[in-house]
Amino acid sequence: MAEATFKPPVTVALTGASGAQYGLRLIECLVAAEHEVWVMISKAAHMVIVTETDVRLPAQPARLGEALTARSGAADGQIRCFGREDWMAPVASGSGASTAMVICPCSTGTLSAVATGASNNLIERAADVALKERRRLILVPREAPLSAIHLEHMLALTRQGAVILPAAPGFYHRPTRVEALIDFIVARILNQLGIEHRLIPRWGEPQ
Question: Residue ranges of the Flavoprotein domain (predicted)?
Fold first, then answer.
């Protein structure tokens, strides 16, 4: 049997901010769009997922990949997961990293680390690689209110070419379910990635 071929990989990292549902839904949509998806989930994000959802994901990368594959309906090999210190992962180097990375949700701690080039774990290193290689990097912070420190880090990253896309859904599509609010943000992320979707109509299109 021939191996499945997927569209270019997109890296998705979930960190410890509230809003794990956004990242999990993004993975589902990327799978549906037939992209390969490279996933990293921080230790704090695992705790948030348990707190905010009924999803239970193992921490070990191989088992995590199996769980996400089953949950999203992905094909074999479509989802690859990497551990916190898997320094041989392709995302750790400019020669192997994907052309786009999304940190969703993005904690303010991760925001700070990326803005200052800390690279203390694989998520931070992968974001650093995206910046230095001038590749698409989208950060989805979910925090309120924002301090001057947070805003300064967002400004610094924007000047470096990153996209700051706060998890602040709109209401002009008249959502009646929480899922519609989640899809609003995921649709904006997909727009930034140039990936077609039918989650919500674009402005000016019929509902």
Answer: 10-193
Is 112 one of the annotated binding-site residues?
no
User: Binding site annotation covers 22?
Assistant: no
Round to the nearest angstrom and report the end-to-end CA distance of the chain: 42
142 is in an annotated binding site: yes
Judge contact between 106 and 15, C-beta under 8 A: yes
* Domain ranges within the chain, ordered by starting residue: 20-193
Task: Describe the chain by its helix, strand, coil percentages, rounded to 5.
Answer: 40, 15, 45
Query: Under a CB-based contact definition with an 8 Å cutoff, are residues 66 and 39 in contact?
Result: no
CATH H-level superfamily of 20-193 = Flavin prenyltransferase-like (3.40.50.1950)
* pTM of the predicted structure, to 2 decimals: 0.95
DSSP 109: H
95 is annotated as contributing to ligand binding: no
CA atoms of 198 and 127, how far apart (whole Å): 28
- Spell out where 100-183 has E strands: 100-106, 136-141, 163-164
Residue pLDDT, tens place only, 118-156: 999 999 999 999 999 999 999 999 999 999 999 999 999
The answer to whether 15 is annotated as binding is: no
- Yes or no: say if 19 and 140 are a contact pair by the CB < 8 Å rule: yes
Distances (CA, A) of 138 to 25, 57, 61, 63, 177: 16, 24, 23, 27, 25
